């Protein structure tokens, strides 16, 4: 099925970009100006420095470029809502930022205080109040209320303060919010599909109840493995809600395209079953054929309701279902699992960035994984794919990857008891559960922790890694911070600053001997927004594994030399994720068209312009379209009225 280039109707739009020529501006100056331009819609181009990205140097005086610009840009439509209904619509509400003309025209004059505020003033007010909250949960509740009240301002605040607020709207605070969901629940934010709705028709009806018709991205969970907190049942709805907030903030995906869904098949958490505030079905989890039937019907209903190319992201499914469902649907639907594929890509991106310092090809690295769950195995498999891309055979690549699970080193002696995905990594070595022994024997370039065993990277192990390598790679990826295999401080201190460190949870900067180290966080947020943006805009048939390798490469290349050499930081700055997402989407878009996986036709001539024109703007828009005149000859008042003969009704 092919889609024409007629774009979906949008109600929230970025300002039309113009271009400013800056004579003699250098690259760093242009980068700074470009970051400001993203907010204002102004394109800045130097006459001496090359454009940072192809497409920034677009001259709209060129008729062809102007034609593309007009084709790709979304159009504004005056909302039909008026009065109180408009103020209660988060997508349209601007609070005291409505102009006097808008207040009078839209029937809200007198319903608001008479003061007028800019969006910037409103954002300042929100942050001032937010920073006075007693704890992170209180901040989460305040932001949640803001999203219910004024969607545009919520995303403006989030985008302007992404480093500060990302841990509030998503991990780790969202986990606490899910645990307390029964207490803090206010307004519905997603759809609930239960085991009692197990038919395509019933699920279709539920999907049809969602107020937005143009859904293009669905994030779904069954609540069985919420972060590191286990089975939270329907309390897990906060995860797809938070994930989709990041779709908007970090990739500019339109909020009205997003739908959070929770699949309620019960819960095995007895505490929730006894909780008087629990919001889900009070029954044990359904498994087996009935569960699979529900998931099959859900997938069919989603594509029947919203289209075959609708992106569906699986989030926080338990390990026994995560891989199985991904394998079941990935070649038939446009789906991905962020816990498996997103995690794999972001870890590989960190390893790729590390190779810029170790000066060794990726394929030449030996890696030991301490922990071999679904996420770690996904990382190992993507490492193999990258090594194969660099010229190794799959067997050679697997020989460079060592897995340690709860039973110890994955060896051929354990062959009969290994999961299918572990078999290719099994080594002809003695069985052992001792990580230090494995490190001494294997002499790896890097160790990657995904065990949730706090402190498992002991001082002796870290010291041994420093003896083996001039720049040892140590990734402590377990979440939350309390379960990390080691702290950033320990890694830097024990290796005397030579370590290339990354973590799953954020660590503070560390200063030693006058040098500041900024530990990189292997956050999936570097990957999934760009992947989702490409899949949505180019209407992918499905998402190939190569898309995640492309995202990893772009992420690693986006790390500056200063970050690597001065701060030993292996990931980009969080505030740059929106720009990174655009670049990832361009790379993936090119791949999709090259391999006939995109269904949006004709192919956009300028993919960057096409993408940037669809990105959600956090700036307020004028809600009233400007009026315009017709030719005066077409506005004459009808036709000449002939003299009509009138007869009196009075009798003579």
From TrEMBL:
<dbReference type="GO" id="GO:0005739">
    <property type="term" value="C:mitochondrion"/>
</dbReference>
<dbReference type="InterPro" id="IPR001891">
    <property type="entry name" value="Malic_OxRdtase"/>
</dbReference>
<dbReference type="InterPro" id="IPR046346">
    <property type="entry name" value="Aminoacid_DH-like_N_sf"/>
</dbReference>
<dbReference type="GO" id="GO:0004473">
    <property type="term" value="F:malate dehydrogenase (decarboxylating) (NADP+) activity"/>
</dbReference>
<keyword id="KW-0479">Metal-binding</keyword>
<dbReference type="InterPro" id="IPR036291">
    <property type="entry name" value="NAD(P)-bd_dom_sf"/>
</dbReference>
<protein>
    <recommendedName>
        <fullName>Malic enzyme</fullName>
    </recommendedName>
</protein>
<dbReference type="Pfam" id="PF03949">
    <property type="entry name" value="Malic_M"/>
</dbReference>
<dbReference type="GO" id="GO:0006108">
    <property type="term" value="P:malate metabolic process"/>
</dbReference>
<feature type="domain" description="Malic enzyme NAD-binding">
    <location>
        <begin position="340"/>
        <end position="593"/>
    </location>
</feature>
<dbReference type="InterPro" id="IPR012302">
    <property type="entry name" value="Malic_NAD-bd"/>
</dbReference>
<comment type="similarity">
    <text>Belongs to the malic enzymes family.</text>
</comment>
<feature type="binding site">
    <location>
        <position position="225"/>
    </location>
    <ligand>
        <name>(S)-malate</name>
    </ligand>
</feature>
<feature type="binding site">
    <location>
        <position position="339"/>
    </location>
    <ligand>
        <name>a divalent metal cation</name>
    </ligand>
</feature>
<feature type="binding site">
    <location>
        <position position="315"/>
    </location>
    <ligand>
        <name>a divalent metal cation</name>
    </ligand>
</feature>
<dbReference type="InterPro" id="IPR015884">
    <property type="entry name" value="Malic_enzyme_CS"/>
</dbReference>
<dbReference type="GO" id="GO:0051287">
    <property type="term" value="F:NAD binding"/>
</dbReference>
<feature type="active site" description="Proton donor">
    <location>
        <position position="170"/>
    </location>
</feature>
<feature type="binding site">
    <location>
        <position position="316"/>
    </location>
    <ligand>
        <name>a divalent metal cation</name>
    </ligand>
</feature>
<dbReference type="GO" id="GO:0046872">
    <property type="term" value="F:metal ion binding"/>
</dbReference>
<dbReference type="Pfam" id="PF00390">
    <property type="entry name" value="malic"/>
</dbReference>
<feature type="binding site">
    <location>
        <position position="523"/>
    </location>
    <ligand>
        <name>(S)-malate</name>
    </ligand>
</feature>
<dbReference type="InterPro" id="IPR037062">
    <property type="entry name" value="Malic_N_dom_sf"/>
</dbReference>
<keyword id="KW-0560">Oxidoreductase</keyword>
<dbReference type="InterPro" id="IPR012301">
    <property type="entry name" value="Malic_N_dom"/>
</dbReference>
<feature type="domain" description="Malic enzyme N-terminal">
    <location>
        <begin position="147"/>
        <end position="330"/>
    </location>
</feature>
<feature type="binding site">
    <location>
        <position position="479"/>
    </location>
    <ligand>
        <name>(S)-malate</name>
    </ligand>
</feature>
<feature type="active site" description="Proton acceptor">
    <location>
        <position position="243"/>
    </location>
</feature>
């Amino acid at each position: 099925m092919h889609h024409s280039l007629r774009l979906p109707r949008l109600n929230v739009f970025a300002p039309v970009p113009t271009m400013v020529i800056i004579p003699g501006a250098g690259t760093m100056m242009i980068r700074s100006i470009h970051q400001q331009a993203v907010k204002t819609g102004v394109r800045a181009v130097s006459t001496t420095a090359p454009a940072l990205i192809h497409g920034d140097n677009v001259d709209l005086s060129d008729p062809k470029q102007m034609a593309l610009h007009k084709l790709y840009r979304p159009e504004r439509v005056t909302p039909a809502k008026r009065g109180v209904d408009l103020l209660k619509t988060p997508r349209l509400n601007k609070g005291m930022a409505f102009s006097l003309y808008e207040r009078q025209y839209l029937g809200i004059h007198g319903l608001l205080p008479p003061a007028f505020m800019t969006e910037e003033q409103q954002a300042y007010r929100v942050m001032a109040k937010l920073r006075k909250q007693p704890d992170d949960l209180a901040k989460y509740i305040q932001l949640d209320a803001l999203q219910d009240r004024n969607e545009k301002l919520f995303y403006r605040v989030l985008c302007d303060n992404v480093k500060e607020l990302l841990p509030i709207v998503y991990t780790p605070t969202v986990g606490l919010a899910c645990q307390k969901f029964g207490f803090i629940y206010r307004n519905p934010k997603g759809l609930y599909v239960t085991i009692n709705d197990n038919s395509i028709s019933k699920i279709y009806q539920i999907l049809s109840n969602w107020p937005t018709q143009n859904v293009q991205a669905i994030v779904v969970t069954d609540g069985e493995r919420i972060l590191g907190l286990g089975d939270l049942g329907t309390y897990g709805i906060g995860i797809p809600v938070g994930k989709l907030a990041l779709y908007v903030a970090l990739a500019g995906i339109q909020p009205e395209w997003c739908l959070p869904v929770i699949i309620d098949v019960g819960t095995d958490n007895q505490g929730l079953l006894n909780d008087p505030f629990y919001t889900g079905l009070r029954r044990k989890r359904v498994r087996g054929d009935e569960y699979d039937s529900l998931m099959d019907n859900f997938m069919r209903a989603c594509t029947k309701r919203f289209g075959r190319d609708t992106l569906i992201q699986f989030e926080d499914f338990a390990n026994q279902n995560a891989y199985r469902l991904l394998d079941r649907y990935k070649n038939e639907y446009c789906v991905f699992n962020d816990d498996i594929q997103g995690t794999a890509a972001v870890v590989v991106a960190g390893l790729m960035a590390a190779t810029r310092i170790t000066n060794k090809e990726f394929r030449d690295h030996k890696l030991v994984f301490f922990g071999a769950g679904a996420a770690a195995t996904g990382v190992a498999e993507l490492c193999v794919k990258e090594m194969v891309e660099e010229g190794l055979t799959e067997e050679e690549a697997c020989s460079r990857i060592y897995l340690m699970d709860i039973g110890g080193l994955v060896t051929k002696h354990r062959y009969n008891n290994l999961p299918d995905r572990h078999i290719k990594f099994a080594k002809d070595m003695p069985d052992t559960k001792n990580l230090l022994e494995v490190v001494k024997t294997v002499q790896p370039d890097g160790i990657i922790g995904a065990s949730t065993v706090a402190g498992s990277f002991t001082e002796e192990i870290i010291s041994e890694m420093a003896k083996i390598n001039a720049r040892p790679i140590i990734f402590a990826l377990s979440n939350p911070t309390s379960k990390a295999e080691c702290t950033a401080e320990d890694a830097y201190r024990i290796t005397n600053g030579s370590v290339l460190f990354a973590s799953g949870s954020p660590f503070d900067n560390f200063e030693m001997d006058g040098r500041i180290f900024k530990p990189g966080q292997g956050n999936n947020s570097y990957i999934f927004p760009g992947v989702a943006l490409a899949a949505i805009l180019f209407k992918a048939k499905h998402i190939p594994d190569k898309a995640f390798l492309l995202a990893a490469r772009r992420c690693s290349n986006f790390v500056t030399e200063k970050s690597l050499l001065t701060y030993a930081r292996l990931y980009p700055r969080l505030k740059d994720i929106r720009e990174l997402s655009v670049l990832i989407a361009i790379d993936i878009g090119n791949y999709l068209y090259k391999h006939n996986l995109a269904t949006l036709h004709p192919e956009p001539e300028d993919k960057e312009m096409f993408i940037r024109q669809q990105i959600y703007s956090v700036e307020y828009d004028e809600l009233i379209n400007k009026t315009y005149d017709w030719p005066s000859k077409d506005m004459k008042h009808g036709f000449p009225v002939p003299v009509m003969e009138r007869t009196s009704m009075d009798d003579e």
